[in-house]
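Consortium newsletter contribution from the modelling node. Members have asked for a concrete example of what our holo predictions look like. Here is one, prepared for the pyridoxal-5'-phosphate complex that several groups have been discussing at recent meetings.
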Amino acid sequence: MSNQSMNERRKAAVTPAAASVHPLYFQRAEGSYVWDVEGNKYLDFSSGIAVMNLGHSHPKVMEAVKRQAAEYQHMCFAVGMHPTYIELAERLNRLAPGPTAKKSFLVNSGAEAVENAVKIARAYTKRSGIVAFTHAFHGRTFMAMTLTNRPEPYKNGFVTRANDVYRAEYPYLFRNPWGATTEEELGEKALAALKNQVKYSIGESEVAAFIIEPVAGEGGFIQAPRNFLAGLAQYAAQIGALWIDDEVQAGVGRTGKMWAVDHFGLEPDLMTTAKGIGSGFPIAAVTGKEPIMDSLSPGMLGTTFGGNPTAAAAAIATLDAVEAEGIVERARQLGEKARARLQVLTEQQPRIGELRGVGTMLALEFVQADGITPDSATTDAVVAGARDLGLILLSTGTYSNVIRLLPPLNLSDAELDEGLSKIEQAVSQALSQTGSREATPA
Ligand code: PLP
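And here is the predicted structure:
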């Protein structure tokens, strides 16, 4: 079997709409490494897009899944209940930020969690308006797609959108429309603009919820300023709206805290989680303040597979291991180490416009020679070059010009060094290919 022969079969069997960054077919994965069908070994700095926070095939997760699957694999919660669902809900409620008692609803994917959070917010507030942000990604289902920012490739072609969704400006220091030069100033300006938009263009009494990623993932690893998120939470409460914290990508330790919102000391009304909670098993959740979660009547929410026992067992084992192995603290340390080395690279390479991020969620934004025009060609060349060097990387960003680091959070110092060396080499090779090109307008 070769990557090439699989590609032929793929072309015949799979819609091209389901695109893949790397033309590779993986056969084995363990810890921080993956092997393709030709036996080539790669260090995985994608973690299946922020999913394998414990690395591949973590023994405690594998064992929990085997144990549960040997008992039974599926029991629809809507038919008869099972203890794993309750245990996971209890765990998520305990882990969720803030002092208010919480309840959870379990589903299968991040997009489904977002869909249900919006349904809950609308049912609770009896209002319809949902305010999402530029640079946001919330998934591909109908409502989640509408909340997602980028038209290409996520929305164009699908003809229609969900109703009553509004878009406000996400505070992005490197590219902000207000000319703000500090996070503090940016937060103030963005908050004032948001309030202005809600008050004069949407209507304060029409807003059911604001949905925001405290660190925008697909938007380019942009952390919201502290005063902005705090002001947003306060404003939502003032106008009788909820705020939904989307932790699907940034949650479960990736930022060096359990949840990205923990950096702000805030308590969201509703929180969506997925990806990292299940170590690759399809599980996701909406966790929210008890009075909100209790406001819906029995039967208003449901799903056949949501919170299925095998995936729930994987999530419980994942959260156990995150605690027992000090994964959150490890992510913080790895992030500091990686940032120091990437800082040197950024100073050496003027075509890296910005190094940013939090914890291990670090990103390099590539620009053309003018210092601002997004450079997606160099970014793509870095991803391809890193792959040739044995490193799986992903790009991100509204302008596809950001390299993001999504390593497992328990990788060793030696593995981190190996990955960073490969990034340095791939960047220098890519810039020697594309670096001489003249800047062209975006
Ligand atoms: N929300 C955020 C912040 C995400 O990053 C993603 C996926 O990348 C989603 C929601 C959608 O999750 P899923 O792909 O599991 O539907």
